[in-house]
Amino acid sequence: MQYSRPARTFFTQTLLDWHRNDNQRQLPWKQNATPYSIWLSEIILQQTRVAQGTPYYERFIEAYPNIIALARASDNDVFRLWQGLGYYNRCRNLLHTARYIADKLKGVFPTRYDDILSLKGVGAYTAAAIASFAYEQPYAVVDGNVLRLLARYFGITTPIDSAEGKKQMAQLAQDLLLKEAPATYNQAIMDFGATVCTPALPQCDECPFATQCEAYKKDNVSLLPIKSKKTLNKTRHFTYIIWESQSKIWLQKREQKDIWRGLYEPFLIETPKPVTMKKLSALLQQRGMTIDQLNEAGASTQKLSHQTIKAQFYTAEVDDQFIDSSQAGIWVTHEDLKKYAFPKTIVSFFKKNNYF
Ligand code: SF4
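A: This is the predicted complex of the input protein with iron/sulfur cluster.
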């Protein structure tokens, strides 16, 4: 779809005027930006709100001020710093890419867009952000904020998650980009979407685009952008048993290709439905574990992007021979629990029950 030159010029000019005069977003990675700091901030902000991601960025940049420092850090230290952000694949990719750049590229961040895009964990959006913010290269960023603003302003009804919609939006975003100042333009459009043309309650009455905005003129702001797919969400039932022996707790590392890979957790039984204590005792017996007393210790729910984890917790005193040696795990003192990285639901349980 083609849009007239005046419409595109008005859009770009209005956006830059707003950015110059009214944009209040001060983000720490905007100061003294380097390819490393931009890449780090963008990976942290994938699927994370700025307010939540900012303290993580600050802690990471303090602990690992450059890519070599990050590459040389242990997995466990980095996972611990990441704890609470979720989407742990991002953390694994962060480490993989840091080590790849340190070892294979002599610590020098790539400068070509295609080379940046080939890094693990870097998609088209992140590559465009790094290329434009770090090197002033003319690549338009297309994130959720940009999609929403463009769909509303131009009144685009093609579903933004369809192949056609993605292509159309990428082309339009690239056409609108101010090639002489890509970093400023990209920052402006993302900030505008994040602060004015927001998903709920956009500030249309004060918006400088209001006179030209198709969605506002047709009164269908709340209907745009359109998405075709509904995200399927499945519920999983995790029963955790905190085995304790001589003030030590048994932990295992999640190694399987699943959520939370690389993090630690207590003994786990996953079932299709919630289990009663009687059923749980039977399941343990099937595994050759007979236990005198299981104590109910609470429950929690953690929502992830495509699944909901309903966790039940039990505690039990055992002797340290109880877990047979075929179960790969470790006994950890209460004091040492803080050295390990856990999923959020486990951290909450440990905090609530004064384990640390
Ligand atoms: S008028 Fe409303 S919907 Fe249109 S661009 Fe402005 S904030 Fe977004």
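The first strand starts at residue 234 and ends at 245. The chain has two domains: 5-223, 234-352.
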